[in-house]
Amino acid sequence: MTFPNTKIVITREDLNRLGITMSNSTLIRLEAKGQFPKRIRFGAHSVAWIAGEVHAHIASLAAAREAA
To answer: What are the extents of the domains in the chain?
Structure first.
């Protein structure tokens, strides 16, 4: 699987800078429903998201807003 931007968003702070300030439990629920990109687990306490997927998700929300 290839992604146009494979840079990894390493911390929750990176998500916060993008305006994604949801709690961890909310993100987990959205990921399970397919409403937010799934995290990658690097260890017991280390997760990250692929930046390209997060940016595509934000873009799709903006497009849906414009279509409404």
So the answer is: 8-67
